[in-house]
Design a protein that fits this description.
Two copies of one chain form a homodimer. Chain A is α+β, with helices and mostly antiparallel strands. The first copy, chain A, contains seven helices and ten strands. Chains A and B meet through strand 7, strand 8 and strand 10 of A and strand 7, strand 8 and strand 10 of B. The structure holds a DNA duplex (30 and 30 nucleotides).
Amino acid sequence: MSDSLSITLDRSSPVPLYHQVAQQLELAIRQGVLAPGDKIDNEIALANTLGLSRPTMRQAIQTLVDKGMLVRKRGVGTQVVHGKIRRNVELTSLYDDLAAAGQQQRTEVLALRREHADETTAAQLRLAAGDDIWTLHRLRFVNDEPLALLRNHLPAALVDLTDVDLASSGLYEHLRRAGVHLRVAEQRIGAKAADDQERELLASGDVPLLTMERTAFNDAGSVIEYGHHVYRSDLYAFEITLVDR
Amino acid sequence: MSDSLSITLDRSSPVPLYHQVAQQLELAIRQGVLAPGDKIDNEIALANTLGLSRPTMRQAIQTLVDKGMLVRKRGVGTQVVHGKIRRNVELTSLYDDLAAAGQQQRTEVLALRREHADETTAAQLRLAAGDDIWTLHRLRFVNDEPLALLRNHLPAALVDLTDVDLASSGLYEHLRRAGVHLRVAEQRIGAKAADDQERELLASGDVPLLTMERTAFNDAGSVIEYGHHVYRSDLYAFEITLVDR
DNA sequence: GTCAATGCTTTGTCAGGACATATTGACGTA
DNA sequence: TACGTCAATATGTCCTGACAAAGCATTGAC
C-alpha cells in the first residue's frame, strides 16, 4: 500500500506548498489511486521525498483529515477512509448541485428589483428599514419540471445585480466573481405544505415542500444574503457529509 | 478592544496547551467578554503574555477560525465575528437539541431487538445479509406531543444494546460512552407525506414530515449506524451553521 | 489638495529540532 | 501457552527562527 504517488511541487508558484500537496493528495484519493483502507507513507518519509519540512507535510495532511478523507492514528500511521466526500455542504447551492449531476436545467427570473427594505426584511439583513436592497425571485426547472422557488434578498450596498444574467449562472457564483466572499451561513431546513402561489408555480399538487432559510455572512460578519427557498420534495433533497472533530 | 482576558494555563495537564487556550477563548466569546467586532491582540503579543510560542498560539486561534467565530486578516489583525455558533451540526442529534432547548421530553422505545439483517439493511450497514444487527424504533415526545419517529439499525458486533435505557438518554450519547467514536456521517434531508403508520404514531394529520436518512462511520470507515427518521415539520426543523473554508 | 511611494504592523508560510505518547509486535519468562 | 515487558514506529505537541506578503497609515512630491 505504499505510494506510486507522483506529487509535483512548484516553489515559484504563489500557491502555498502545503496546499499544492493537499490538492494532489485529494485528487489521488478521489480518482482512486489511493483507495479507502490504503495507508500512506509516514509524515517524515513523505516530507523527505518531497523535499519539505515535516510541519508543512503535516499541514497538508491535516487539510484532508479535516475533510474526513484521511484518519491519523498515533503510532500506526495515516489511512484513507473515504474516497468520495460530498462537498462539505460548502454553503449548499442548488445550481452547483444540479450542474454537477449533469441534469438539464434552466432558471426563470420572476422578479429582480431594487427597493427599500420593509421592516421584516431589514431585520433579516441586519439593516435599517428603508435601506436599499435587492429582491430576487427565481423559479428553477430540471428537465422542464419546476423544482424550486428561490426568494432572496441582498443589501444593495454590497453588490450590483443590474444586468446580471441570473438565468444562466448561480447567485453564489456571481457573488464570488464580484469579490464577495462567504464565510459563515446559518441554515434552517424544514418542510411544509404548499400555499396557493407555490402550488401554482411549482405545480406540486399535494407534494410537500422542503424549505430552506439561509442567512449568509461575509468575513466582516455582515449579512450578504437572506434566502427563503422551497423545493419539491419528490425531486430534491439535501445531501450533506458531516465531519466530527 | 484590548483584552481583559484572563487565560490560565496548566502545563502539567494532559490537555494540550493550544486546546486550553482555544477553549477559554471560545468561552470568552460565547459569554460576551469578547463581542463581535472586537479585535484580539496580535499573535505574538498573546503568545508572549501567555508564555507560549507563536505556532502554539496560532493553533489555538485557528481552531476558532475553523469554527467561524474568528476571522484573521493579514496586516490587520484577528477579529471576533460570531458569538453564537450553533454546534457545527456535529452530527445532529435530536435528543441533544431538545435537551439544550430545555423542553420537557420523553422517549418511548417501540422496538429493540437483535436480529439477522435482511438484504436491504445489510447493504445500508455494509454488512452481509444475515449478519447480526440491532433494530431500534423509538417515538419521541415533546411536551407530550409526538414529534419524531426514529428508526435505527446498528451492527451488533460494534455495540451491545441489551439493557440499555434508550428512553432516558440519546443513542449517540450511549455510543460515545461505549467508546464508539463517530467521525463522518452522510445525511440526506428531505420531506414527504406521512404514510398510515406514521400518521397513526405521530398523529400528524396532514402535516408534512421532514425526513432524515443518516449513515454514520467511525475512524476505520466502518458503518456504525444507519438511521431513517421522520419529524413533524410543524414542530421541528434542522438548524445548521456552515463555515466555508 | 491629490496621489503615489514608503514603512510599519500583522498574519501567512516554511524550516528544523526536540521530546511525549499511543500502538504494535517481538521477545522472554512463568 | 499465556502473559508481561520492551523496543521500534508513527503521530502529537511545542519550541525557535526566518522571511514573505497584505493592509494601513504616514509621508512626501507634484
